[in-house]
Amino acid sequence: MIVTDSKRALHVRRKEIEHALLAAIDFLERSQLAYGEFRTYAASDKALNADCRFDSSPFVTSFVLYSIRFCQDSRIRAMTTRGLKFLCAEMERNGLWRYWSSRNALHDVLPPDLDDTSCISFILNQHQQTLANRELILANRTRDGLFYTWLAPRAASAPHWANEIRRATNTSARTLFSISGTLENVDCAVNANVLLYLGECRETQPAIDFLKQSTSKETICSSYYADRIALYYLLSRAYYNGVPSLEETRDAVIQSIITRQVRDRSFGNALLTALAICTWLNFNQPQSALDGAVAYLLRTQSHVGSWKRIPMWLGPASYYGSEELTTALCVEALSRYLL
After folding, report:
1. Around Cβ 261, how many Cβ atoms within 10 Å?
2. 41 and 320 in contact (C-beta within 8 Å)?
C-alpha cells in the first residue's frame, strides 16, 4: 500500500509511475502497426480467449490517441502522426467512419455510425484537422433530438442530407438493420461521444438531458459498452472537453464509482480501474483518494509494459478490446494522476 503522508514516499511513487509510463509507451510504440493502427481483438468470451482474432477497426486507435496525449514523452508525436494517418485513410464520404476498417473483410457489413465518426472527428479536430460533417450528424437525430447510433436516411432529415446519407450507406446493411430493429438504436454512450465532438449547444441539449436522466438509473443504457464505468468515463470525458452542463451528473457518478471499489482498491480489473481514475479526475475530484487504485495499476503491469487484454465494448463477436486499449487508458490514468 502506498503511503501518501511523507515526502520520501511521494518521491518514490512518482519515480515508480514514471518508470511504468516509460515501459507502457515502449509497448505501445512496438505494438503500433506500420500503417498506424493500434490493434483490436474480437472474441466470444469475456477473457478474450475463445476464437480470439485481430479485428481491424479505427475505433481503438481513436481511444489510444486520446489517452496518450496526457503523457509527456517525446515518442508520442510520431505515434500520433502515424495513427492520424490511419484514421484519415479510413474516412469515407462526408467525414464518416465505420466500425470495421477497409482492411477488414467485414467492412461493408455495417453502415457508418456516430460512435466511430464522433470519436475520430474529435481526435482530428484536436490536431487542427477540421471536418464538414456536423450537419450530417445533426441530420441523424430522433424527433426528440437524440442521436441515432447508425447512419440511415431519416424521414425527418432534410432531403439533401437524406440523399447524402443514402449514398454513404450500404443498402443491404440498411435493410438488415431495419428488419432487426437495430437501425433505430439510441444509445447513451454513443450520445456521450457525439457530445464530445459537437460540444454543448442548442442542438445537443436533448442529448445532454438524456445523459443526465441516464446516470440516475442503475441499469446500463448502452448496448455496446461492457460496463457502466465505461459510460461514466465517456460522459465525464465529454464534460472535461466542453460540455459543462454534464457537471450535474458528477455527484451520482462519483458515488456510484465509490461503491464499485473492492478490497484490493481496484474497480475489478485494470481497464475498469483506469476508467474509474480518469472519470474521477475528469470531474476534478481529489487525487489523494486514488492512491490505492494507482498502486493496483502499478502492481498489475506486465514485464513488457502492457496491461491485460480486457473487453470494453460489445458486438457480434461478442467482446472487443486489446492490450493496446487497456494500456493506453492506464497511461492516461497514471499521467493525469501525476499532474
Report:
1. 17
2. yes
Q: CA neighbours within 13 Å on the CB side: how many for 48? A: 21
Burial of 67 (0-12, 13-18, 19+ CB in 10 A): buried
C-alpha cell at 229: 464505468
CB-CB contact of 329 with 275 (8 Å):
yes
Are 192 and 212 a contacting pair, CB within 8 Å? no
HSE-up (13 A, CA, CB side) for residue 267: 26
Residue (of 98, 105, 91, 32) closest to 65 by Cα position: 32
Length of the chain: 339
- φ/ψ of 53, rounded to 5, equals -150, 155
In DSSP terms, 225 is beta-bridged to 313
- Average pLDDT of the chain is 91
Q: What value, to the nearest 5°, has the Cα angle with vertex 39 and ends 333 and 240?
A: 30
Please name which of 54, 60, 162, 185 lies closest in space to residue 113, comparing C-alpha atoms. 185
Q: What single string gives the DSSP state of each residue in 81-140?
A: HHHHHHHHHT-BTTTB--SS-TTSTTGGGS--BHHHHHHHHHHHHHTT---S-HHHHHTS
Q: What is the pLDDT of residue 5?
A: 44
Mean pLDDT of 149-155: 83
Distance CA 114, CA 295 (A): 36
3-state secondary structure of 174: helix
Full-model pTM:
0.93
Q: What angle do CA 228, 222, 148 make, to 5 degrees?
A: 145
pLDDT at residue 169, rounded to an integer: 72
What is the DSSP code (8-state) at residue 56?
Answer: -
What domains are defined for the chain? 7-338 (1.50.10.20)
What does residue 236 show for φ and ψ, rounded to 5 degrees? -70, -30
| CA angle (48 as vertex; 255, 61 as ends), nearest 5 | 75
